[in-house]
């Protein structure tokens, strides 16, 4: 149940971050119509045509995370890594899709700056925490299913947080992913959410298992279409909310269908987000790339100079 998260937040070292709520649990885009809350999305990507309105495919009925039962996180609380895992599956599951599967949110806080050993190696500070979403072992409803999450956040006044795409050439840490996406709450931001547009379809996270992660644009969503979480009300009062969809994978290439596994990470934090500096490898490549022509020019210059001197000496003899 949605509210069962409430008491547990107190146990999580980095949560709750007061001005920024990522309510992965509670939303109901069709709440006004009296339909159920919905959250984990699944699309049938078998018949996706170019330029289709639903680039991920035809949606299956979503799984509402408000109707998941979540584990007792006390047993997953690890004080050495400052992490805890919320693991859940639908309470009422007649299809048996989650018989051997679960959806997990691993929340991790950090005591200082650095990067996790695992891709996508998001740069973190002590003011941030990482949320890793893992869908493992759930049976998809089609043989080419793409999964997604609907994410609800607190707005800024009447607006939604601003969306920014940063490009980096920091290739060493996330091979071939040259982009960092971020949401900023305010121009001098009180908080941020940051992620690389990549998810992984295997436990072994590498280039082969990387799948793209697409984010839709943010839309204001009506507060009263959300289940009334006491925690949310207590921290934010009556706020406006914004929602967007994240989808993991595309119809071609690797996907959830390979190993029935999907993981994706994001960073949540206070103030300005950490900025990726160039990695030592990239700096080295730049140094070599810029250095080599420089050396050639220098060499060429010396050669010309010497040649010229020889030439003038020769002329002076004449
Ligand atoms: C969670 O587990 C701990 C230790 O196993 C136990 O003390 C606690 O009562 C449990 N909490 C709930 C809500 O079941
Ligand atoms: C769950 O695992 C058991 C044992 O490995 C297997 O027999 C069963 O078919 C699996 N169920 C689903 C829905 O995958
Ligand atoms: C996917 O499923 C459909 C219908 O269930 C089947 O006709 C098709 O052969 C399957 N494709 C693959 C690649 O297994
Ligand atoms: C997310 O995708 C689902 C399924 O396509 C859709 O019903 C829902 O309105 C989308 N939510 C947002 C915030 O775009």
From TrEMBL:
Residues 1-27 form the signal peptide. The chain crosses the membrane at residues 281-306. It is a single-pass type I membrane protein. Pfam families: NCU-G1. Keywords: Glycoprotein, Lysosome, Membrane, Signal, Transmembrane, Transmembrane helix. It is found in: Lysosome membrane. InterPro entries: NCU-G1 (IPR029382). The keyword Metal-binding does not apply. One of its GO terms (cellular component) is lysosomal membrane. Belongs to the GLMP family. Interacts (via lumenal domain) with lysosomal protein MFSD1; the interaction starts while both proteins are still in the endoplasmic reticulum and is required for stabilization of MFSD1 in lysosomes but has no direct effect on its targeting to lysosomes or transporter activity. Required to protect lysosomal transporter MFSD1 from lysosomal proteolysis and for MFSD1 lysosomal localization. This is Glycosylated lysosomal membrane protein.
